[in-house]
Design brief:
By secondary structure, the chain is mostly helical. It has 11 helices and 3 strands, in the order H-E-H-H-E-H-H-H-E-H-H-H-H-H. About 80% of the residues lie in helices and about 0% in strands. It has a 3-stranded mixed β-sheet. It starts with a helix and ends in a 5-residue tail after the last helix.
């Protein structure tokens, strides 16, 4: 009995000790859990405070500074005079083409319809960029607000992609006129022409909307100096204070589609055109057919060549001096080239201009 009693006491003491250890473990677990909760809550507070600071930094960038040609110093006055003259020539040339096409009944065919749409698009395209550039050439503060910068990029990209699509459609128009002259009235009816022009504008501004959103949804919390004379994609996206590789990849794919698809379409169209022209027996007929396409081909080579050099590469390879020079080519000289090429090399447009001028001299009320 004494042995059993001793064993019972030993067992009870062990149970008591075990219960005490379990209680201690529970207390330690509760203390550790509360400690973890306090750490996590402190971490959440720290993260929230950092997010608030970042949001404050992001919202602090409300404007950009367009550096443009500021490195040229006093030579900017010469550039102002040159670009102002070129801008006035662009406006007068494109407005003349649109007016002549509207007034002359002989030019109311699909080819000149698309030429008129292209002239309107080129006029709006230069209006988005050049007036602000001219103002900045004369001012010390070259500031542009965040919203204005996004708006400028949206309309610039919209009209630029629209021009690419229009040049592709004009290539198809030449193909239909030369390769299928009997079916041309059906292939290029006015209803189809209107649908094609609307599709070019719709696709252009859809690409522009996506590209602009991909750029300006990024946080801008650091430097705000845009090393360009307008808000273009590459110099602006480089100012983002976060990783923009995915956005740049999507924009690059969009640029490839916007440039290479119509360019491929133009190459295929002119392949068929060349095959058809070579079958023409007379040398005069071949020369006339080639002269019809020469103006369009000249504009296509310059426009697509310059645009491909700037946009078909990553923004990390952006070179401010070279890219500014190339950008001036397709924002100033290409719109200047369009009316000059189509008016100087096209006898129908020359005759229509002379007719409208002569009509204006006889009866000023017509204009």
């Amino acid at each position: 009995m004494v042995f059993n009693k001793a064993r019972w006491l030993l067992t009870s003491s062990c149970l008591t000790t075990g219960l005490r250890q379990v209680a201690r473990i529970r207390n330690l677990r509760v203390m550790f859990s509360s400690f973890l909760v306090s750490i996590l809550s402190d971490e959440r507070l720290a993260v929230n405070s950092r997010n608030q600071v970042n949001q404050a930094n992001v919202s602090s960038v409300t404007e950009f500074l367009l550096l443009g040609f500021s490195s040229l110093g006093e030579n900017q006055l010469i550039l102002f005079a040159v670009f102002l003259c070129l801008y006035l020539i662009i406006l007068s040339g494109n407005i003349t083409i649109v007016t002549v096409i509207h007034l002359d009944c002989n030019l109311r065919i699909p080819m000149y319809f698309f030429l008129g749409i292209l002239s309107i698009s080129e006029t709006c395209y230069t209006f988005v960029v050049l007036p602000k550039m001219l103002i900045n050439l004369l001012s010390v503060l070259r500031k542009i607000s965040f919203i204005s910068c996004a708006t400028q990029m949206f309309f610039f990209l919209g009209f630029a992609v629209t021009n690419c699509m229009l040049l592709g459609v004009m290539g198809y128009d030449h193909y239909a006129a030369i390769c299928h002259p009997l079916r041309y009235p059906i292939l290029m009816s006015w209803q189809i022409c209107g649908q094609l022009a609307a599709s070019c504008a719709g696709i252009g501004f859809l690409f522009s909307l996506v590209g602009t959103l991909l750029v300006f949804r990024l946080p801008f919390c650091g430097p705000n100096k845009v090393n360009h004379y307008f808000c273009d994609i590459s110099p602006v996206i480089r100012l983002a204070c976060t990783d923009s590789n995915i956005n740049e990849l999507i924009i690059f794919i969009g640029g490839v589609l916007a440039l290479m698809v119509p360019m491929t379409f133009i190459c295929i169209s002119y392949g068929f055109i060349v095959c058809t022209i070579l079958k023409i027996p007379s040398a005069e007929g071949k020369l006339k057919a080639f002269s019809t396409c020469a103006s369009h081909l000249t504009v296509v080579i310059i426009h697509y060549g310059c645009a491909s050099f700037v946009y078909l590469r990553p923004s990390s390879k952006f070179s401010s001096s070279k890219d500014r020079l190339v950008t001036v080519t397709y924002t100033v000289f290409t719109p200047l080239l369009n009316p000059m090429v189509y008016s100087l090399r096209n006898k129908d447009v020359q005759m229509a201009i002379q007719k409208v001028i002569g009509r204006g001299k006889c009866n000023p009320k017509v204009l």
